[in-house]
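2024-03-11 09:14:02 INFO worker-7 job=invfold-0412 stage=load source=structure_tokens
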């Protein structure tokens, strides 16, 4: 469907032009589900699925940038994922470091800005160091924003936002009754980002699972049975063009 991008890489520095990309989401959220099932189907350990999932994540970030998406949020580790076997959690916590060792140069050359959603202070020290380094390396960039949701939960994000607001009231910096929805956005981890337009979930589950619950209030939802490690540039293109069709239908009656 597209010009060849070499090994999935873009050759030019321009955004892909395509009629189906005329109306596109500014901010996409992705629930990267199905890594364990992908591994089991192949008789591999779960962590092999996570490693393959990391490759799919890299290709998805490239494709989002090539398609001119402004912001993508990737649900990498939820507040519930601590319940997994320790060995699996330990493997997962090494992935950010591995990812940036291989990808930071390309991300920087694309002008990508990295951000984190969720409570990163609870992560192991080596993971926190990667978080800090990636923020420092990309803070001056003005291209696409990539948000990694790490130790993230939507309810936890809302509780933290409410607590911050309550503290401002206690300190006399805010008063009860004059909070608008737009004001409230400023207390969330996604403060300052474009509104969430599209949520993609792979692997056949039709749930939000505590992902960006406030932000998803008006988002389009797109589900596929494709397992995350198999998710491709063409699948992303499908999701974005379906989004465009839904929006254009709306435009016809409004
Ligand atoms: C496993 C599919 C990249 C989801 C993708 C710690 C499950 C592969 C990262 C990553 C994970 C995170 C932060 C960052 C850079 C990269 C990652 C986790 C899991 C949880 F700044 N892949 N990846 N993080 N998987």
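2024-03-11 09:14:09 INFO worker-7 stage=emit residues=254
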């Amino acid at each position: 469907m597209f010009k060849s991008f070499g090994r999935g890489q873009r050759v030019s520095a321009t955004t892909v032009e395509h009629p189906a990309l005329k109306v596109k989401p500014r901010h996409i959220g992705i629930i990267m589900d199905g890594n364990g099932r992908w591994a089991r189907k192949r008789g591999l350990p779960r962590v092999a699925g996570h490693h393959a999932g990391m490759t799919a994540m890299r290709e998805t970030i490239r494709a989002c940038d090539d398609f001119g998406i402004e912001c993508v949020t990737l649900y990498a580790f939820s507040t519930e994922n601590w319940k997994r076997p320790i060995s699996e959690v330990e493997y997962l916590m090494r992935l950010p470091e591995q990812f940036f060792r291989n990808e930071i140069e390309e991300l920087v050359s694309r002008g990508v800005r990295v951000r984190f959603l969720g409570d990163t202070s609870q992560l192991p020290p080596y993971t926190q160091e990667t978080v800090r380094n990636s923020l420092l390396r990309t803070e001056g960039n003005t291209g696409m924003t990539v948000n990694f949701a790490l130790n993230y939960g939507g309810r936890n994000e809302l509780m933290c936002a409410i607590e911050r607001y309550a503290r401002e009231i206690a300190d006399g910096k805010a008063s009860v009754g004059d909070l608008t929805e737009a004001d409230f956005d400023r207390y969330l981890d996604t403060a300052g980002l474009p509104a969430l337009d599209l949520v993609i979930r792979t692997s056949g589950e039709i749930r939000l699972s505590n992902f960006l619950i406030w932000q998803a209030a008006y988002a389009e939802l797109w589900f596929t049975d494709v397992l995350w490690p198999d998710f491709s540039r063409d699948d992303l293109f499908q999701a974005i063009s379906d989004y465009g069709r839904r929006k254009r239908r709306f435009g016809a009656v409004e």
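2024-03-11 09:14:09 INFO worker-7 stage=report msg="The helical segments are 35-41, 46-66, 86-109, 125-138, 154-170, 181-185, 233-253."
2024-03-11 09:14:10 INFO worker-7 job finished
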